[in-house]
């Protein structure tokens, strides 16, 4: 499963090196926050796994999208071009909801001069808020 290297790092199934101390420190912070709830250990680990997975995926997606843009092209313009291309490619008969999404104004805003960081922050915050709202419901159900 996890193999220790001579330099203290660990290597997992994927071969990606992990900073075990940093991972445990992050987990400790989360567990301290969750210690004020009545969630059981399984739910606490589930919350931490969900949030960690969201953060990792968000960083990966942001990086992948930045790599795929033309040099000098901002995120707002790239998203607008992406949405417009998909409007032409998605067949509404086969994928009616996806067609409605790409035909909506979602990819047309914000203005071209909006800083990439502002867009990324708003996207990240939206997703994190949805996750935390769900966690709050579970905490409430646990009687905390």
Element layout with pairings:
Blueprint: E1 3-4, E2 10-11, E3 17-18, H1 20-34, H2 41-68, H3 75-89, H4 96-103, H5 116-141
Antiparallel strand pairs: 1-2, 2-3
Helix pairs in contact: 2-5
Can you describe what's shown?
- It is built from five helices and three strands, in the order βββααααα.
- The protein is mainly alpha-helical and 144 residues long.
- A three-stranded antiparallel β-sheet has the order 1-2-3.
- 3% of the residues are buried.
Observed structural traits:
144 residues, mainly alpha, single chain
Distance between the termini: 35 Å
Radius of gyration: 20 Å
Helix proportion of residues, in percent?
55-70%
Largest sheet: 3 strands, antiparallel
Please sum up the structure shown.
With 144 residues, the protein is mainly alpha-helical. The protein is 64% helix and 4% strand.
């Amino acid at each position: 499963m996890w193999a220790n290297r001579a330099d203290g790092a660990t290597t997992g199934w994927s071969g990606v090196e992990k900073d075990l101390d940093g991972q445990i420190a992050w987990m400790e912070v989360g567990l301290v926050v969750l210690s004020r709830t009545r969630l059981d250990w399984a739910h606490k680990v589930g919350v931490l796994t969900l949030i960690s997975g969201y953060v990792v995926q968000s960083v990966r997606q942001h990086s992948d999208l930045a790599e795929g843009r033309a040099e000098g092209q901002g995120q707002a313009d790239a998203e607008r071009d992406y949405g417009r291309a998909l409007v032409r490619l998605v067949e509404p008969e086969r994928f009616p909801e996806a067609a409605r999404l790409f035909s909506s104004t979602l990819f047309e805003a914000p203005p071209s001069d909006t800083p990439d960081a502002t867009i990324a922050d708003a996207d990240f915050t939206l997703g994190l808020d949805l996750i935390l709202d769900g966690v709050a419901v579970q905490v409430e159900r646990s009687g905390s």
